User: Which sequence fits this backbone?
């Protein structure tokens, strides 16, 4: 479908050294870049990264091969340097590639998808150096779930950076109308405007949420009632979040999300204490990278654990679960939330039955209409 406002940003960014497309899972980052490349008939080298690409030489081999696949004359000399015994990427390979680019006539667009999987400081240093010495023939596009450790502020101040983030990728009302018109075509009556806006508000324009909702709506005669009851407990949504968000996080992040997912409420210090250890640096990192939890903008005392009911597949030990629930209840009571504290202590007394599988789904980030 046509998303002109996003294509315009990507098109403008083609004249700059870097375009950064950053958002959590399911926001359609790769899809929008691929659609724009096809619509504008842009030939690009595309590298789908994984955790094995943290070796600088391996990373640069894929990057240079992608440049060749895009039809660029740049890359062969740099590849020869890369294969030479004792070569160093920063010292030997990168300067050769920059020189080849500077002498080339054609523009080169390189897309590095899933850049968040790169954790090597050496690889980041080479990419930062490439951007610092970037000739006008090169345009780099990074698709990532978190801001990379690159000199983004400097690029932003220079006007050398184009950005698309989750707020930009969020579907507008007009885009949602077109989306559901296409997805539900031939599956009965289209959604009413009221149902469309309600569904858009509940998913907050999240592309994966809209897609999963469309799949569930195709065979539903009672669409309005289904939309009214739609929450993060829907199994399709739970499975997606479990596979794409929770399962891809490091162990320390999963443990923190699981330990604090029993909390309905909690200002900054509550999740840290409830997790049982000094987790403030981790919470700050999660707030920045947003893999699945962030504060609710409309309620300062509520968090939004978007992995939600995905914890069904990742249950913590009962002792951890019960200790977390009791600690949360005590803090709620001290802060004056008596009803919430009584409810939580009651769950603990009943052995926390259903707490771990249901509590998050009821508080998932879909807004109730």
Assistant:
């Amino acid at each position: 479908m046509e998303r002109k406002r996003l294509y315009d940003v990507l098109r403008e960014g083609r004249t700059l050294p870097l375009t950064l497309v950053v958002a959590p899972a399911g926001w359609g980052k790769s899809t929008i870049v691929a659609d724009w490349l096809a619509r504008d008939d842009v030939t690009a080298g595309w590298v789908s990264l994984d955790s094995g690409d943290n070796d600088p030489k391996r990373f640069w081999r894929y990057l240079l091969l992608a440049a060749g696949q895009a039809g660029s004359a740049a890359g062969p000399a740099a590849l020869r340097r890369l294969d030479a015994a004792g070569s160093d990427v920063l010292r030997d390979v990168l300067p050769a590639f920059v020189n080849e680019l500077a002498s080339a006539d054609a523009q080169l667009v390189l897309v590095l998808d899933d850049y968040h999987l790169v954790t090597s400081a050496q690889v980041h240093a080479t990419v930062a150096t490439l951007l610092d010495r970037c000739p006008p023939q090169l345009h780099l596009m990074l698709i990532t779930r978190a801001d990379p450790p690159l000199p983004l502020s400097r690029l932003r101040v220079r006007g050398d950076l184009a950005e698309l983030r989750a707020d930009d990728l969020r579907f507008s009302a007009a885009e949602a109308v077109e989306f559901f018109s296409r997805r539900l075509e031939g599956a009965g009556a289209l959604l009413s405007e009221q149902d469309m806006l309600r569904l858009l508000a509940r998913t907050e324009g999240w592309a994966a949420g809209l897609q999963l909702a469309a799949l569930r709506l195709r065979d539903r005669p009672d669409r309005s009632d289904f939309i009214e009851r739609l929450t993060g407990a829907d199994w399709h949504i739970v499975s997606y979040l479990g596979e794409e968000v929770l399962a891809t996080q490091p162990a320390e992040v999963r443990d923190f999300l699981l330990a604090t997912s029993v909390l309905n409420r909690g200002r900054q210090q509550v999740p840290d204490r409830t997790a049982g250890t000094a987790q403030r640096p981790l919470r700050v990192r999660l707030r920045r990278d947003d893999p699945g939890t962030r504060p609710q903008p409309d309620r300062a005392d509520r968090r939004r654990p978007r992995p939600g009911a995905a914890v069904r597949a990742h249950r913590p030990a009962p002792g951890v679960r019960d200790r977390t629930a009791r600690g949360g209840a005590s803090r709620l009571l001290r802060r004056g939330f008596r009803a919430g504290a009584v409810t939580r202590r009651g769950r603990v007394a009943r052995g926390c039955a259903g707490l771990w599988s249901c509590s998050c789904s009821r508080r998932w980030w879909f807004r109730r209409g």
